[in-house]
Structure prediction request, 252 residues.
Amino acid sequence: MGVNLVLTILIYYAAFQYLSPLVNTTLEYRKKKFALINPEYSLIELSTIPINILDIVSKIQDKLSEEGFIKEVFLYQSSPFSEFEVYIMVTVNRVNKDRAIIITYSNKATNEVFNYINYCSIYEDGSELNTVNKPHGIFNTKNESNTYRLPSFKDHKELYNVHKKLEQNFFKNQEKILPTPGREIYEFSTTDLKFLDTQKELGMLYIDSKDNAYKYTWKAAFLTSISQFRLIENIEEQQIREKEKEILRLIS
Prediction:
């Protein structure tokens, strides 16, 4: 057997070892349901929240209260297709009219919990400024010009300081408005529907009317699978750091 043939076999074997998990994972995601056609939220009382979730959220709320944020409402969402239960606490600073939204995910199988926070300012002309410590996923929106993502900013006060500086730079003379009480479920449901519709337009999701659900397209299934490889994760982490530097340069 020639040396070239041996090398060829080894290359094909290495490629198979690398690509086989990618192909299998892509096929798994292609079969998955992503979300209900009409995502639903419900209002919940603090007494009904699991103690581990309540403990985490309460600690964050205590820190937010130092900045003048007061709890307005607590929402809950659980899809039969999702691995996670979602808990959303909406807080409002009624003096400066900013919102701080704590979004907590709890894995149904492992009870693993993670969360992020979104500072939001809404203006009279309908525009919004959002500063959030959640990174981009593969499901990006077409236009996030007024959304600034800083996933390495775990300290909520530091994140809020960035939000206020961004507002001073780009929305200095605009009047803010308070959110309308009682419309939280409508607002979050509408946001989800817009997100899902956008992903459909971008070729990431399609509607399966038989299952009453959005499902992964081949494109989304492949991108989700490949994003789990360590090499891709390292590249994404580098991109996140560069984007954060760009945001910080805007306010320096």
In short: The chain has a mean pLDDT of 84. Residues 59 and 65 are 10 Å apart (CA to CA). Strands lie at 33-36, 42-43, 70-78, 84-93, 98-107, 113-122, 128-132, 147-149, 205-208, 213-216. Residues 34-250 form one domain.
